[in-house]
Design goal:
The protein has 598 residues and is mostly helical. The chain is 77% helix and 0% strand.
Length: 598
Amino acid sequence: MSGSEILLIAIKAFGGVALFIYGMLMLSRGLEKISGGRMEKILSGLTSNVFKSVMLGAVVTAAVQSSGATTVIIVGMVNAGILKLSSAIGVIMGANIGTTITGQILRLGDLENNANVGVVMKLLTPTYLAPMIAITGLLVYMLSKSDIKKNLGESLVGLGILFTGMLTMSSSVKPLSELEAFKELFATLSNPVLGIIAGALVTALLQSSSASVGILQAISATGILKFSAAFPIIMGQNIGTCVTSIISAVGANKNAKRAAVVHLYFNVIGTIAFLIVVYSIKALVGFPFWDDPVDMSGIANFHTLFNVVVTICFLPFTKLLETLATITIRDAEKKDGETGESFDIPVLEDRLLYSPSLAIQQANKTVIAMGRMALQNFTGMRRLFDGDYSEKLIAKLKDNEEAIDRMEDRLNAYLVKLTECEMTDYENRRVTELLHLTSEFERIGDYAMNLIENAEKLHNLDIVFSESALRELSVISDAVQEIIEMAVKSVEDNDTKLAFKIEPLEETVDYLNETLKSRHIERLKNGECIIESGVNFLDQLINLERISDHCSNIAVYVISSQKNRSIVNRHEYIQERHESGDEAYLKLTEEYMAKYSL
């Protein structure tokens, strides 16, 4: 065989590899979108039950067709504090089982070489199955309007491309079976050490054990790949897949690094143990099939058997794996949680961007944390006016405001990164909504800070409000505190019923604001208070009224989200509520007016 012929074969083979990997990515991406984060939500609620963790790890990986994606998400969840290391171990073990599903699907390629199959079975061979799946997927994608159906179509097209890539690889490498050098190469890989190294390097390069197993299955079509060479290569592939999780753990906290180390230890120790057992049996008893050619089914079955057996053997030793990881990554490093903050803020973990739905959940938690901190500053401000003034409290509230600003910066940067990921229409709307909510809660924090600074000014000037002014401020502050609480709770619970109650209360705050302005102006005219306190009082009212406006905006975003529509214009919403003559709305307004009567 000439050099030019080998070059043409190589071009065709690498083209098949490219199609195969692209198809796998499309399939994985589509399945991830279909899951809509439901699998990840289940993972985040795991207990320390290792059997449950293993099962769910296998299911999630089988669903998204990527053990690498699963382990990266797990490392991210551990780093974000969503998942404990002890629970993550079981999931990682299960991910190794889940990833074998790809090889079991690709074993259909063995039907290509069977001349005795009937018409129905013939249709299941990749030659016919690939175009049928791709055409079906394309039609579903083009004719459907719902996100789920479009994602299903994308997954089917990806599966069709994956099979096409497999066929291209298989057909291109078949002529190489005539080359002595090619035969010698795989004869050399029968050496277990060399086989493991080769499998690990190829998998590390591709960062996908499913892809490297698929390529091995394609090579088996040549008929020169023996069981003796395939076994160590497959075991090496399990080690190579650890590279993805190790890379993802760079820069993470100690527990996330331990999760990646657990993945490495599990696969390395499992490979060594399995290697010792297999080669001991071979030496003592022997395997009649050892020097026979292996087919796609044989590779798929051994890949599954290896991972299932190793996982079962390790089930009683999860604590030992955790101990090994803890010894390797010692507490002395302790660099996690270095935020400079004395409160618990959700970690906006870049590794979770592999799963946009999970990243959105984490961003939503951070938005809620912002809201709660703004509410904390508002209640702290009220203590300043209620005679509980202290420099220590002022310092604490200012620290909170700085934290709110930092969270806004982090959220905006994180959500912008998220827009670069492939998301469904619903997820895109959620990101837009979170960007708006981030801005609204930050503004509430700013106005609360203005109120705190007003309290400082009064204290420094040794000025106090009159009894009537303090009573009036207390009434409107009660109303504003309730509306902030409702805004935060409606976002936290995604509660449209609660969000609906916000606008009637906002109208009440507007009424109180206008009434109190008029009353205070009369007091100024009558000389009942001095100019400095009068200006401060009016500024307090402005800030209180603006806080309620932002809470009203938040309510509109929550209502828009539940209606699965783009952001509703607040003024249009208010006008609609006013003109609708809605009895429930009018009744709520009356109740709030009575509750906060002056």
